[in-house]
């Protein structure tokens, strides 16, 4: 399902509203809310809104558990770190217990070993069902999401929930949730805006199925809902 908005402010507001709605619903139903954050620049407006006085008091943050969809394998104080961005815009501004935050990086271990450790943390909290309440995703100009990049072997992964690999074009390791785990979620919200997203959005939502070229096409919820929040420019309707 694709929802088209006039601008990024409207997208941010809708995404923040969905986050609050999902949190309140999950906490009321089962006493906890499990969410997956996305990195890059796209969600910064959403996170700042959630950290604002108008939003942050609508959520019982002591019952919120935060994970990430993917991460560059860099220290948490590196400017490339998705976690660093999330802390600076959201997590450092809300009363969430540190033990409820699961960063996708750890000193002194290999990316591959930590991927297995991260998956274990998810299984411990969510059980074998592995169903997150809400996953926020971005979409690259090339149609990738999380660290599911075109042509990479991780696209074929069927058993691991978390994987790590060396992304040669970027000359760095990446760690990512895999498509099978993402697709278990109750709600998946994809944020995409701007002229550079036009082609990818068109191919992903209306083009021929070719996930090797457009990995976002792998995201097909088993029983949950998938929602694209896009602006008129990305949708080609501006």
UniProtKB/TrEMBL annotation:
A GO biological process held by the record: carbohydrate metabolic process
EC number of this enzyme: 3.1.1.31
Gene3D superfamilies registered for this protein in UniProt: 3.40.50.1360
Pathway as given in its UniProt record: Carbohydrate degradation; pentose phosphate pathway; D-ribulose 5-phosphate from D-glucose 6-phosphate (oxidative stage): step 2/3
Molecular-function annotations in GO: 6-phosphogluconolactonase activity
Pfam families in the cross-refs: Glucosamine_iso
Glucosamine/galactosamine-6-phosphate isomerase domain sequence ranges: 7-227
Keyword Hydrolase listed: yes
Reactions mediated catalytically: 6-phospho-D-glucono-1,5-lactone + H2O = 6-phospho-D-gluconate + H(+)
Broad EC category: hydrolase
Signal peptide (from-to): none
InterPro entries, per database record: 6-phosphogluconolactonase_DevB, 6PGL, Glc/Gal-6P_isomerase, NagB/RpiA_transferase-like
Keyword vocabulary terms for this entry: Hydrolase
NCBIfam families reported in the protein's UniProt record: pgl
Family statement: Belongs to the glucosamine/galactosamine-6-phosphate isomerase family. 6-phosphogluconolactonase subfamily.
Entry function: Hydrolysis of 6-phosphogluconolactone to 6-phosphogluconate.
This protein's name: 6-phosphogluconolactonase
Species in which this protein is naturally found: Flavobacterium nitrogenifigens
């Amino acid at each position: 399902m694709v929802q088209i908005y006039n601008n990024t402010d409207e997208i941010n507001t809708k995404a923040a509203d969905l986050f609050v709605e999902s949190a309140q619903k999950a906490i009321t139903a089962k006493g906890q809310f499990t969410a997956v954050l996305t990195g890059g620049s796209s969600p910064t407006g959403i996170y700042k809104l959630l950290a604002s006085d108008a939003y942050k008091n609508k959520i019982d943050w002591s019952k919120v558990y935060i994970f990430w969809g993917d991460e560059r394998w860099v220290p948490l104080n590196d400017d490339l770190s998705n976690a660093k961005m999330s802390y600076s815009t959201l997590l450092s501004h809300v009363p969430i217990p540190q033990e409820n935050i699961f960063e996708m990086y750890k000193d002194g271990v290999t990316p591959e070993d930590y991927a297995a450790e991260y998956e274990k943390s998810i299984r411990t909290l969510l059980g074998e069902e592995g169903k997150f309440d809400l996953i926020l995703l971005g979409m690259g100009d090339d149609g990738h999401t999380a660290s599911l990049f075109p042509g990479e072997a991780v696209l074929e992964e069927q058993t691991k929930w978390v994987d790590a690999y060396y992304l040669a074009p970027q000359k760095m390791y990446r760690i990512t949730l895999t498509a099978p785990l993402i697709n278990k979620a109750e709600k998946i919200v994809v944020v995409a805006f701007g002229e550079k997203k036009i082609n990818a959005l068109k191919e992903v939502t209306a083009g021929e199925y070719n996930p090797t070229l457009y990995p976002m096409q792998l995201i097909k919820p088993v029983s949950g809902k998938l929602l694209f929040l896009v602006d008129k420019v990305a949708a080609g309707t501006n």
